[in-house]
Structure formats: C-alpha cells, structure tokens
Automatic annotation (TrEMBL):
Cytochrome c oxidase is the component of the respiratory chain that catalyzes the reduction of oxygen to water. Subunits 1-3 form the functional core of the enzyme complex. CO I is the catalytic subunit of the enzyme. Electrons originating in cytochrome c are transferred via the copper A center of subunit 2 and heme A of subunit 1 to the bimetallic center formed by heme A3 and copper B. Pathway: Energy metabolism; oxidative phosphorylation. One of its GO terms (biological process) is oxidative phosphorylation. GO terms for cellular component: plasma membrane; respiratory chain complex IV. Belongs to the heme-copper respiratory oxidase family. Residues 1-20 are annotated as: Disordered. This is Cytochrome c oxidase subunit 1. The chain crosses the membrane at residues 39-61, 81-104, 125-154, 166-192, 204-231, 264-283, 290-311, 323-345, 357-383, 395-417, 429-450, 470-493. It is a multi-pass membrane protein.
Amino acid sequence: MSSTTIDHAPGHDHDDHAHDHGHPTGWRRWLFATNHKDIGTMYLIFSFTMLLEGGLLALLLRTELFEPGIQFFRPELFNQFTTMHGLIMVFGAIMPAFVGFANWMIPLQIGASDMAFARMNNFSFWLLPVAAILLTTSFFVPGGATAAGWTLYAPLSVQMGPGMDFAIFAVHIMGASSIMGAINIIVTVLNMRAPGMTLMKMPLFCWTWLITAYLLIAVMPVLAGAITMVLTDRHFGTSFFNAAGGGDPVMYQHVFWFFGHPEVYIMILPAFGIVSAIVPTFARKRLFGYASMVYATASIAILSFIVWAHHMFTTGMPVTGQLFFMYATMLIAVPTGVKIFNWVATMWRGSMTFETPMLFAIGFIFVFSMGGFTGLILAVAPIDIQVQDTYYVVAHFHYVLVAGSLFALFGGTYYWLPKWTGVMYDEKLGKIHFWSSLLSFNLTFFPMHFLGLAGMPRRYADYAAQFTDFHQIATIGAFWFGLSQLLFLYVVLKAYSGKGAPAPSNPWGAEDGGLEWTLPSPAPYHSFETPPVVQ
C-alpha cells in the first residue's frame, strides 16, 4: 500500500466527546441503532453467542463419541446435533462475526462517517436473532430439528419433519441479511472513501470485504433457490429431487455446491484481510506485494465458481468432469499460495514482536496452510473417492474454518480491541488464550486425519473399537478448546468494562494501516464528520 499521510480538514474536532451529542441511550440505542459501531458491536455479540451454542452442540457430539456404542443420544438426535452445529457455526457464528468487523472497521479505515445505508444496516442485523430463534426452537417441534446434515441434501431433507421447514426459513432469513449487508459494504467502499483514498490505497481488509460482498450477492440467491426447491418438493407436489417424479437428487448437490464452494471463500477472504492488517504492523514493515494480494483475492473469488463439483467426486460424474474439477481446484491453490508467501515475506527480516494479535496471525498462517495442503490432497479425485465422507474431510475443513476464520477473528479482536474500548486488554491472558486454543485445536482435529485415513465415516454416532483412542484424544481436546474460549470472553469483557491501561490512538505503532489509527481510542460515536484528506 502506498504510504498515506492524513490531513484533517480545518475544524475537525479530535475531542472524544465533541460529537457525542444527541444520540439515543438505553435500549433505544440498540434496537434502533443506525451507528455502524453499535451495529458492529451487536453483530459481534450475536456471533459469539452463536459460537457458544454451536460449540455446546459440538461438545455433545464429542461426549457421545468418547466411547464406542450408543452412550447418551440416539442416532437421530446425534444427527440433529451434527446438522445444527454446522448450520449455526457457518450462518450464525463465522459469517456474522466478519460482518461485525466490516461494520466496525470499514468506515474507520476509509474515512467514511458511517455505512451507506444505516437503516438497512439495522434491519439486516435484526433479521439474524429471528433466524437464530427459528433454528434453536426447531429442536422442540415434533420430530426435532433437521438431521439432513448442514448441506441439507435431498432426498433426506425432503423427508424430514417440520424442523426442516424451520431450518429452510432460518437460512432464507440469514441469506437476506447477508445480501443486504453485502450491498451496504459495496456502496460504502465504492462511494464513501475519503478524498485521495484510491482503491489501491485502501487497507486490504476493505479489499477482501469488497470482493467477499460481490461473492455474497452472487451466491446467496443460489442457496435460496436450492432450499426453495426442497420446500416445494416437501409441500407443493413438485419433483425437483424425486427420481420417481422425474427429478434428480444429484441436481440438489450441483445447485447447493455452486453456492457452497464460494461460501467457503466468503468465510476466509475477510480473514485474509485481517491477517494482512496484523502482520505488517508487528513486523514493522510494509505489506509485501500489496497489488499482488489484491489480484490474488480477486482470482480466488473468480476461480471459486468453477470448482464446486470437487465436493461430488463420488456421485458418478464422467472422468472428464472429474479431471476438470480436479485441475481447477489445484489451480485455486496458486493465488492462495501467493498470499501465504507474501505474509512470510512481510515478516522476513522484520522487527517482529509477538503480541497476541501477531501470535494469532502466525498461528493462522501455520494451521491454515495445513488445512490448505489437505485440501490439495482432497482435490485429487482418486484419493478423494477413498476418504470421501470420512473424518479426513472433517479434519480438513475444521483446519480451514476454525484455525482459519476463527483464529483470524480472535487476532482481529485483540488487534482492534484497544480502538473499540479505549483500554489495552490483558496481554498475559491473551497469550494464554492463544497457546491454549492452538494446542487444544490441534489435539482435537489432528487425530481426525488418522481416523479418516483408517476409514472412520463422519456423522456416525457409533464406531468400531479400533477408533476409540483417537476419538478419546479428540474429545479431550474439544473440551479444552471450548473452555479456552471462556477465557477469551473474560478478556474482552474486562476490556469493555474499562479495566486496563488507557489505549493511545495508535497503540501498536501501525504505520501502514487505514485511517482508524488517526482517531482517538475509543473511537468517538461520530467519526470523520469532516472527511480526512489522504495524500
């Protein structure tokens, strides 16, 4: 990124409370919130709540799997837990968390006074608790929640009880929320940058979110189409996925994964943006290859549309199709590799310090790379056919999504928490949280590679005795990982309650960030009422 100097236009008031006049207080401030910081905070609180719910379901799964045999939950309930864990984590925890970061940071980084559509921003948030209530209450309807897996594959999803309809409506509502959020981000980034901030001067977090927002607008309607077809098959006599009526259940997989694979990048591109903000700051160097990072992000987004059927190598597709999707999937590793090398090159010979955000960023690079390599292995069709639907796949995508998305979210939280709260968080507890999370994560998911290679299928409530040891190790790791996140909650709440050293406006000495470091900490309620000028 070209180095930027900021001139505040005359009359710009830096005083923390100068602009705090007349905004609503109490419950009205949150219910009718139009301020991007308040809405960002609500997204983050909501996503962490859903993370705890989804995590609780995961711990119930691991409790059942501690020993072979059916211990606590009948297989139908186990499958409901599996399905809801996936839906809640993807649509309730990871995606809203990144939207919370976007709401908080994009206006601050580009010098905008707020998001473009403040009321739509409020509406897109308040759809989410409605969807979360629908998902959670589906456990209590006759037949329980949907047990078709988070992918909601037909024909199973066509045969489920009313809990399936709850899930369909919840996903529809969350999709509408995502589309509104994406429109808001695109318009804000394209129209509300400070004078002098060209697109190629924007922080990479803004770039990754701009590209992610286009992905969301492209693929959320596809998901809506897939689940609407399931809904009409269930209740209105259509036969989209019923072979007896001329339909094709494999068509559901094609439509779903045309959404599902770009969705994976929707959950990781903003993480790349956060890591690209943290690494240069703590390496005390400019980000290596800024332009190539932008182009790599765009390449990943474009290529993500032509790899969907690598999830479907076992559906009996012709070998030509297998080869196409195999090579396309390998190709997408190239721009991803560009990013990894650029981060490493940024750290190379830098004056590195290892505060908690940097630890999470380095942990992200290390463990995400492992997830990337298992992804390359799964791209090879003959290998994929062997390990399809085993714990090897579970290990792969948790390395990408937990150590990828989640670690980046933790790193970003520690990085910007002083800007949000005005105080420095407890560094010692932050480091304990990092090491505890890293060790317990690997203890949980690394053994799953061996389970999968040995043939342990995923989504099974029972298993053969030879898998016991690895399952027990994974369960112990899962409980350790879950408890570690309570420490994170404590650190954040402690900072929000104002306990800690006051944070300066640029606590990390970031030379190459966005405009957020020119504001006092905590960021005032109304920031950049007079646009700064970037030179």
